[in-house]
Amino acid sequence: MKFSVTVILKKDVLDPQGKVVENTLASMGLNSIKSIRQGKFFQIEVDEKDHTTAEKKVDEMCKKLLVNLIIEDYKISKI
Amino acid sequence: MKFSVTVILKKDVLDPQGKVVENTLASMGLNSIKSIRQGKFFQIEVDEKDHTTAEKKVDEMCKKLLVNLIIEDYKISKI
Amino acid sequence: MKITAQIVEKHGLKLEEYENIKKLLEREPNFLELGIFSAMWNEHCSYKSSRVHLKKLPTKGKQVIQGPGENAGVIDIGDNDAIIFKIESHNHPSYIEPYQGAATGVGGILRDVFTMGARPIALLNSIHFGAPEHPKTKSLLNGVVSGIGGYGNCIGIPTVAGETKFNDTYNENILVNAMAVGHAKKDKIFYSKAKGLNKSVVYVGSKTGRDGIHGASMASAEFDENSEEKKPTVQVGDPFTEKLLMEACLELMKDNSIISIQDMGAAGLTSSSVEMASKGALGIELDLDKVPCREENMTPYEIMLSESQERMLIILEDGKEKNAKKIFDKWDLDFVVIGKTTNTNKLTLKFNNRIEGEIPIDALASNAPLYNRKWVKKKIQKTRIDLKKLKKIKIEDALIKILSSPNHSNKSWITNQYDQNVMCDTVQKSGSDASIIRIHNKDKAIAVSVDSSANYCKAYPLVGGKQIVCENWRNLITVGAKPLAITNCLNFGNPENKEIMGEFAECLEGIKEACEFLNYPVVSGNVSFYNGTNKKNIYPTPVIGGVGLIKKLSKPLNHNFKKNNSTVILIGKTFGHLEQSCFLKENYSINEGMPPEVNLLNEKNNGETLLKLIDKKLILSSHDVSNGGLITALSEMSIGSEYGIKIFKPKKLTNLYEYFFGEDQARYIVEIETNNLGKIEKILKENNTYYENIGLTQKEFFEIEKELKISTNDLFKINNEWYKNY
Amino acid sequence: MRSSVIVFPGSNCDRDIAIALEKMQFKNQMVWHKETKLPKSDLVVLPGGFSYGDYLRSGAIAGKSLIIDEVVKAANSGCLILGICNGFQILTETGLLKGTLLRNKNLKFINKDVHIKVMNNNTKFSNKYKNNQLLKINIAHNEGNYFTDPKHLDELNKEGLIAFKYCDEKGNINNGTNPNGSLENIAGILNLKKNILGMMPHPERMIDDIISNKDGINLFSSLLN
Ligand SMILES: Nc1ncnc2c1ncn2[C@@H]1O[C@H](COP(=O)(O)OP(=O)(O)O)[C@@H](O)[C@H]1O
Ligand SMILES: [Mg+2]
């Protein structure tokens, strides 16, 4: 079973990467941007049959390692 | 209009980060994992009314800056 | 699969070469065998076009422990200490994917050095880009720089020196050369020659993936419109794994387990196994099922030709496997016995219990093609540039133009991205003529520098070759080091073109003459041909990496003025050679004419005399005069200092432009205590060294009497603006 | 004083800090990350480098290694803990120090000598320095941009938990003298009990005049005090 996880910095945490990307795109003339935030993306394949168990496992991975809960939010989706 | 872009290394391209994360999760006892690949995630807000124009703009950003087309694949979705 | 002419060609082999393969095998090769031949017989691995010329280089000397032919060169610096170093190109991969190309270039050269038992202590690089205005330059530049930093910083070896140049000759083909320097105990050096029958051949490091298949043949082909298609060969570097691999290898090297060790570089498992067997006059049998693979269903062809990074091949003494495995387990690295040495003199490849390929080692190595390609001497351009016919320009403006140009502007925006201080032995970082690295726990040090001068080499390869060795030699001398030996990376165009081959032959002749005269042997190196696109070849660009010894470390010597009112002396004669100068290039875009002459006798004498003065502690600061001439060198001495200089007008009636901007060789500028002048003049005279007293340092201002006056602060700004606005 | 330096795969300033500690007469031991017991120590150092390649987030994976549980225990029982550079990042990932280290604001690795100001000399780590003393210390990092929530920032200020701030050679603390975008120019912080210090600059690189200067020495001699 395959899942995707997206991780993004919380709203009130500064995002230096996003900022620089935003400025660079603007300076390249791509100026219809309103805002850009950069985060992480994981493709995870787990060895489980049951959707709920599988998603729980992925959630556990996020909480225990993939995400820094103090500064980041995340979202799991099945793919 | 808001989009999300996920970027991931092409198949067969080495993903050193994914590999280390995978090993770490396994050694933490989360061993139902089959594979994990790590990529990038962007939340982009563009100042456009029309969906097609907006998506085109985002695609242009991907091609010109956000994605390294030589080693990465990407996907744009509306959010 | 039937092997057709098209398949042969796709493998970068000529049809005659294919015929030769059939003869050596006494049959047709299969697809796997063809792939192996193609990897071993391409330019990158076989040196088929260059070997004839490389043989002429001087490679011996009292200081040399191991010359070319091993993974890296080894020199003796006394007290059982040895320095191991080499330079290597990663031009083509870096053009395709600058970050990963440069990063894996660093990774590759590091493996060459620690394979031999050395702990790497310094990294250097020489990078060449197209014109700054060229649309690709900026992203290539940024990618390469962060790739070099990304790898070196992560693995924790200081990147201490290098050079960055821009020239439109590299618009479609950048150069990325990386050099690594390591330290080992003289009695603990490891070689790649296999010995003994039935010994375990062990695979260690990362797993094998599909990356870089045919990277070596790619590096030996010109770019064309189809290079896009070759993109899947991009390799991704993993500096973290390399760090583990390095620590594991160095740990294993502490005892006597290893018979032979070889990194998997270009052409991966193929070239490493063939090289070990060939040097040991043995055969080698590999069980390809056992090779740790990253992807599913990899074929023997893919396994043998993969250029996945961070892998090594080791031949172990009997009974040492268990202990060795323990070490690699500790570092979480794969460790698998994949084969053994045999007495067949063949490379035997098994997969699924079947022999999938079998090739005599000699056919791959000593019988590889060797070409004495046609070459022609450079036709020399004897032009005479009449200064009077050129638009008049003020000395000040010409100087500003040079100092603010991309090629001459300060490069700290690059070097600040490299960890130069990790390992805590960096005595002098980049920014000086040479960087200085202390030998750990000792009070001696080495000095290192890399240099190239493509414009000179293009104009007159013979002199260019000589000049660049001399310039590198001078750079070590100015920091008080005795130059010991060099490594060289020869970046040239298409060797099948006789003009290009001529550039190669003549540059090499020049390098040879200079190295011989200066007792500055070549201990390692690398050749990169086919640099160019669609028949447009790059300028010949030999890059020289030199290592020198500072026996007793004291305060490092550099080029910044140190004091007020000290005397500044110019050692060496000024003739005012302006052709091929930076002055004409930056101000008038003139590239014609000959490079300055190189007089080896003066080079040697001036350099050795300066070393004597430095040894007697009579020198406050010193700098060599190179690109941009005397005035540029003097302004560089002021830029990093709170002191400037008041330069006397030359006494003899010379043209000021020729005097200040001429690029005559064998010159140094030194700052000395004014009250030591007599003592120093005496030594200079005793040594028949020509010198001139050219000025006095002063606070704050850079000045030529009655000609120009700029504050050193302004000079600093001028020199630091370019990248900020790029 | 007994010190322990934890070695993670990818640590690369472990040798440098060990040399500094030994030079200062600490009785030092290197401790491999897979160990499950910490030798008796008065000081535990998490060294600089790229543990686990800085993959995922710098310091994140090292924060999960076996030995870390022991380090946390030691910290809670008052043992002195010093995290330098990557070590600082590991400390924030384990929660021993609050806040986080984001990418440098220019997104580039930065290596140079910078000035920092001693903000509080009333700690085990800084008692040999004077308050407001300026030090010139080397930095070398990709993620040194310290960030925390306003409440914690307030606490840092009120309790004197900011150990060092980036400044210029005259001591000016402002945006122009901030190399990496760090909140309030913060270069190092302490926990509330002041037994844990995390800092981005490398004091172990500043103990030898021939290489640099000796501005880092007093950090170690403070610990011995
Ligand atoms: N320009 C050169 N000058 C001297 N030696 C050279 C030169 N080019 C290559 N060599 C030597 O030829 C050998 C093979 O080089 P190379 O294929 O680059 O080695 P590796 O496979 O270890 O990277 C090395 O010993 C190298 O030092
Ligand atoms: Mg090699």
Question: Can you give keywords for this protein?
Answer:
heterotetramer; A: about 80 residues; alpha+beta; Mth169, Chain: A; three-stranded antiparallel sheet; 2 helices; about 35% helix; elongated; C: about 725 residues; seven-stranded mixed sheet; 25 helices; 28 strands; binds adenosine-5'-diphosphate; binds magnesium ion
Task: State the separation between the terminal residues of chain C, measured CA to CA.
Answer: 53 Å
Helix content of chain D: 10-25%
Residues in β-strands, percent of chain C: 15-25%
The whole-angstrom Rg of chain D is 16 Å
Please explain how this structure is put together:
- The complex is a heterotetramer, with 2 copies of chain A (79 residues), 1 copy of chain C (726 residues) and 1 copy of chain D (225 residues).
- Chain A is of the alpha+beta class.
- Chain A is built from 2 helices and 3 strands, in the order βαβαβ.
- Chain A has a 3-stranded antiparallel β-sheet.
- The radius of gyration of chain A is 16 Å and the shape is elongated.
- Chain C contains 25 helices and 28 strands.
- In chain C, strands 8-10-7-11-9-12-13 form a 7-stranded mixed β-sheet.
- The N and C termini of chain C lie far apart (53 Å).
- Chain D has a single domain, classed as Class I glutamine amidotransferase (GATase) domain (Rossmann fold, 3-Layer(aba) Sandwich).
- In chain D, the strands form 2 sheets. A 9-stranded mixed β-sheet of chain D has the order 2-1-3-4-11-10-9-6-7, sandwiched between helices. Chain D has a two-stranded antiparallel sheet with strand order 5-8.
- Chains in contact: A-B, A-D, B-C, B-D, C-D.
- The interface between B and C is medium-sized, with 12 and 22 residues.
- Strand 2 of chain A pairs antiparallel with strand 2 of chain B.
- Bound molecules: adenosine-5'-diphosphate (ADP) and magnesium ion.
- The site of adenosine-5'-diphosphate has 19 residues of chain C, from strand 3, strand 17 and strand 18.
